[in-house]
Design a protein that fits this description.
Layout (H helix, E strand, L loop, with lengths): L16 E2 L14 E3 L2 H10 L5 E4 L13 E2 L8 H5 L5 E3 L7 H9 L4 E2 L8 H14 L3 H22 L8 E6 L6 E4 L4 H8 L12 E4 L1 H7 L3 E5 H7 L2 H5 L8 H4 L3 E4 L11 H12 L4
Parallel strand pairs: 2-3, 2-5, 5-6, 7-10, 10-11
Antiparallel strand pairs: 1-4, 7-8, 8-9
């Protein structure tokens, strides 16, 4: 039986502390921004607009420099105390935050909050988000450059697809932190768009973008390629250990040594690096073609 569960981030909720023991940065400017969206945060750094960013949510892991900032917890399980401890003059979010009682607390305390494009499921919406953030932070030329680069890389990726004669089945797995559960990304996920643009397809269906699945379902899908996100891959350590996992061992991916490590933040949302990520996935799933 499939059962929807939350992302692994929920299992390691943190309050307002740095992920690597860093203390809150000292800012001379009076502006103090807490941003609770991994998409926005990546764009803010890509624009070079991170100067006044003082804290982020736990799911914001790119670019690597962002890990020096304190976190205020998982964006769907926030606490008012954790946020207020950062003395924010502005909280930026994408309407995917909670719980509701915390948001009501912040509104009652008149903490300034702002959102930008909060439905980012297409390249056009991604560019609109980048442009909105560029305008807000007075980084319009940088935003234009990011959009042009995204277009060029996506055009190259979509051109590349025409040279492939097959459509590999690709299963993307989070190997869970609790009880070794499999969390697979489904055809409803953003990842399915990226894999489709790369010339592959995700064979696992579901009502949500990510679902808990059994070893039997992985085996039944019999993927040509398995992409394992960083936490699970690094914990297991070697390809030999990974290919011995129940449900994985008999797949084409295991037999042909086509199991690869990917960073979670490269596959779960669209952003300025989406074109580059699609090109990278093409190299993996069409290796040798």
């Amino acid at each position: 039986m499939k059962k929807t569960i939350l992302l692994p981030w929920v299992m390691i909720l943190l309050t307002s502390c740095g992920r690597f023991g860093h203390q809150t940065r000292q800012h001379n400017d009076s502006t103090r921004i807490v941003c609770l969206s991994k998409q926005y945060n990546e764009v803010i750094y890509a624009l070079g607009a991170e100067k006044n960013l003082v804290a982020v949510d736990l799911s914001s892991t790119y670019p690597p420099a962002i890990k020096a900032l304190p976190t205020v917890g998982y964006h769907r399980a926030l606490s008012a105390e954790g946020l207020l401890a950062q003395n924010p003059t502005l909280v930026i979010h994408d309407n995917n935050i909670g719980p509701e009682n915390v948001m009501r607390q912040l509104e009652q305390m008149k903490v300034p909050m702002k959102t930008f494009m909060d439905s980012v499921f297409t390249i056009a919406q991604t560019k609109a988000m980048i442009q909105q953030l560029g305008t807000y932070f007075h980084k319009e030329p940088q935003a234009d450059s990011l959009c042009k680069k995204l277009d060029a890389e996506m055009n190259q990726a979509l051109t590349n697809v025409h040279q492939y004669t097959d459509t590999p089945k690709v299963v993307i797995i989070h190997f869970g932190r609790a009880m070794n559960i499999y969390l697979a990304l489904t055809q409803k996920s953003t990842a399915a768009k990226l894999i489709g643009w790369a010339g592959g397809r995700i064979p696992i269906d579901g009502d949500k973008g990510m679902q808990q699945v059994s070893a039997e379902l992985i085996a039944q899908a019999d993927p040509d390629v398995i992409l394992l996100t960083d936490f699970g891959y690094d914990r297991l350590g070697t390809f030999e250990k990974i290919k011995e996992l129940p449900g994985v061992s008999g797949t084409k991916a295991a037999l042909h040594h086509r199991i690869y490590r990917i960073e979670e933040h490269d596959i779960v949302y669209l952003g300025p690096r989406t074109g580059a990520n699609v090109l990278g996935f093409q190299k993996l799933i069409h290796a040798g073609k």
